[in-house]
Amino acid sequence: MHLLARELEVEAEFIPWTYETLFKDLNQNKFDVAIGGMIVTPERLTKANFSNPYMNITTAVVVEDYRRHEFESWRSIDKEHLIRLGLVGEGRAKGAKRYLPNTDIVLMESYSEFFTDNPKGVHALVISAEAGSAWTILYPAYSVVVPEPHIKANAALALPLGDSDLEDFFNDWLQMKKTSGIINKLYDNWILGTKVEQKKPRWSMGRDVFGLWE
User: Which domains does the chain have, with CATH numbers?
Assistant: First the structure.
């Protein structure tokens, strides 16, 4: 969004949203677009327009390193009966409960809650593997585990219902950024934590020997 704002020569305003009021606020024009790894589902398609997917994501769990082996499959997780899984978003929590009936599903206010004081005693955080990788850069004592079978989904931008012109604009803009390689670079930087190597300037007698142009 920072990149888009610069290209349009406007200032971006970021407004916090919650899953409970997201679609109401979006369709009441409290903001123009909802970002943040929004997963496209049939239910959500009835509540908002969505751009074309900009990223494929895989459902994963983030756990402390020493507990990685406990989360190799969703079946093994559900058999334990003692696992407390944390999720953000009431709808996602309800879906997880249907999929994992024997697991204690805990609704959390935010992802950061898990990594800081973890007041609800959650053992693992359900999150996309891509977003989880970014969090583990900040908290290296944790690891991302992708349980079998892999559950995949599409992430897109959520837009107000009925605004086809805005949807067309974002689709065209996203396609431009995919073609130029910008989206891949952003993914490598912010999700994978890959540092962009700065190319060193070619050797120059004026600069490297005589110290000119510094």
Answer: 2-55+153-166 (3.40.190.10), 57-151 (3.40.190.10)
